[in-house]
Design brief:
The complex is a heterodimer. Chain A is mostly helical. Chain A has five helices and no strands. In chain A, about 50% of the residues lie in helices and about 0% in strands. The N and C termini of chain A lie far apart (about 30 Å). By secondary structure, chain B is mainly beta. The chains are: A mainly alpha, B mainly beta.
Chain lengths: ~100, ~375
């Protein structure tokens, strides 16, 4: 998945398309709401850093699973009630590359 | 006299920092989470009066006030500690004190400002006048293992109480000699996430994330050790996901009882503040984040974690019932009562707005636009224990 250029890859899988509006909302959510534990800069807080250095070597599938189902026994909750699998996939691939800033 | 006035006026107009004489009892500040600014506000006029930039990463930032309530000390997430003059509306001093901070507190005598840090885990004490480093207490709970520090609060005797997230302990550091703090350790439980001191300064409570319950230390009789209260409040039921950690602070005590957020349950827990036994619980709309008593203790205002963060509920402490459900705006992050509680200010981050409510009628009294507002801090905190 990585290095393919996300958009063409997603276009091949119509169910996984994340629209531009949704992307803006996802960026905001990650920076603000994930940021409440991971820090708005994603350099870590109560939660571990979500920087490319921390995540780029980790398997995509397991990071997606962490986002959707959480990590029992830690403070990381599962977000499946608020995020779809394609949202989580979009977030992971962007976290691994360096997450976009919110446009202000 | 006239020449002096004209002189003063001239200085004022010349853009120097001189301002007409005034007190600070009705002033405060609002953290603009995303832009590294603070907006200075006046709770009498219900308006902002200045905006200051250059404070770094202010996500999860908090503020405490000097004992003369003229200066604010702002602790940023990036480890920045900034001293702001509320009257001259300017930064007096700024230091980078660590890599990753989460808040701070000021000593009983007002001379020591202490920051609590995640990385490297521990606390650092600064001279409140100069922001010079006085001492450090690394949160090394086992050889080579450092913990994130949470729930830092000042307690009488120039001491600070705090909890260790990974270490599972409550620590009390005595700064009688500011350069040589003496620290005592008490067991807390699994993953303390925040702490509070009761308004009388007697009890320190550390909320636990890793287990149901709250650790309690009687600071008047610390030799008796800590104990656990509200144990097993989850009754063995599965926890709901916690999308944001609740916050604790000393305003949780009202009408002789402590009102505390449950973790992983959509409830506010009530404990008798003399026996610390559970006396009830109130079902609310979501995972509570702030559970704040009004200054007179008659009302408890509660906000919630995402996805319920557009709501605020008000509990009447006499009946223990929810009496109001409000929708102040998108992503309500914080609330602050005016010094005597006739109004409460609420920040709605995603509406870029602060809304002011009348606590008697629940009508809005006003509001204004602020860029991604989070914490709201009024100078009335300067005179309180545990802040």
């Amino acid at each position: 998945m990585r290095g393919l250029g996300l958009l063409p890859a997603l276009l091949m899988l119509p169910a996984l398309v994340v629209h531009a509006d949704d992307q803006t909302a996802l960026i905001r959510m990650v920076r603000q709401d994930c940021g409440s534990c991971h820090g708005m800069t994603l350099k870590g807080g109560l939660g571990t850093p979500l920087t490319p250095q921390a995540l780029s070597e980790k398997p995509v599938e397991s990071l997606i699973a962490t986002i959707l189902y959480g990590r029992p026994g830690t403070a990381m909750p599962g977000w499946k009630s608020m995020l779809s699998a394609s949202d989580a996939q979009w977030i992971v691939s962007h976290l691994q590359e360096g997450f976009p800033e919110e446009r202000r | 006299m006239l020449t002096r006035l004209v002189g003063l006026l001239f200085v004022f107009l010349a853009g120097c920092a001189q301002v007409p004489l005034r007190g600070t009892g009705d002033l405060g500040l609002i953290i603009e989470r995303a832009s590294g600014h603070v907006t200075l506000v006046n709770t009498s006029s219900r308006q902002p009066y200045a905006r200051i930039g250059g404070l770094g990463d202010l996500s999860h930032a908090s503020a405490v006030f000097s004992r003369d309530a003229r200066y604010a000390f702002i602790f940023g997430r990036d480890g920045g500690l900034t001293k702001v003059d509320l009257l001259e509306a300017r930064i007096v001093k700024r230091v980078m004190q660590s890599g990753n901070a989460i808040g701070g507190s000021i000593s009983q005598d007002g001379r020591i400002v202490v920051a609590q840090n995640y990385t490297p885990g521990g606390i650092k004490a600064f001279d409140s006048e100069t922001l010079e480093l006085l001492a450090e207490v690394p949160a090394e709970y086992a050889p080579g293992s450092f913990s994130k520090v949470v729930g830092l609060a000042d307690v009488p005797g120039n001491q600070f109480a705090y909890a260790l997230f990974e270490g599972g302990e409550i620590w009390v550091s005595d700064f009688t000699d500011p350069k040589r703090p003496v620290t005592k350790r008490y067991p807390a439980g699994l993953q303390p996430y925040d702490g509070l001191v009761t308004p009388d300064g007697r009890h320190y409570l550390a909320g636990l994330f890793g287990e149901d319950g709250i650790a309690l230390l009687d600071l008047w009789q610390p030799e008796k050790g800590s104990r656990k209260i509200l144990e097993k409040y989850g009754r063995g039921e599965e926890k709901l996901p916690v999308f944001k950690m609740p916050h604790l602070r000393g305003w949780s005590v009202a009408a002789g009882r402590a009102w505390l957020p449950a973790v992983g349950r959509h409830e506010v827990l009530i404990a008798d503040a003399a026996t610390w036994k559970e006396t009830g619980r109130v079902a609310v709309k979501g995972q509570p984040v702030f559970v704040m008593a009004s200054p007179d203790g008659r009302q408890i205002w509660v906000n919630f974690a995402i996805p319920d963060n557009g709501w605020v509920q008000v509990i009447d402490t006499l009946t223990g019932k929810v009496v109001q459900t409000l929708q102040p705006g998108k992503a309500v992050l914080h609330m602050e009562f005016t010094p005597r509680g006739e109004a409460v200010w609420v920040s709605a981050r995603d509406d870029n707005r602060v809304v002011i409510y009348d606590t008697k009628t629940f009508q809005t009294l006003g509001g204004f636009d602020v860029d991604a507002p989070s914490g709201i801090f009024f100078t009335s905190r300067a005179a309180r224990i545990g802040f």
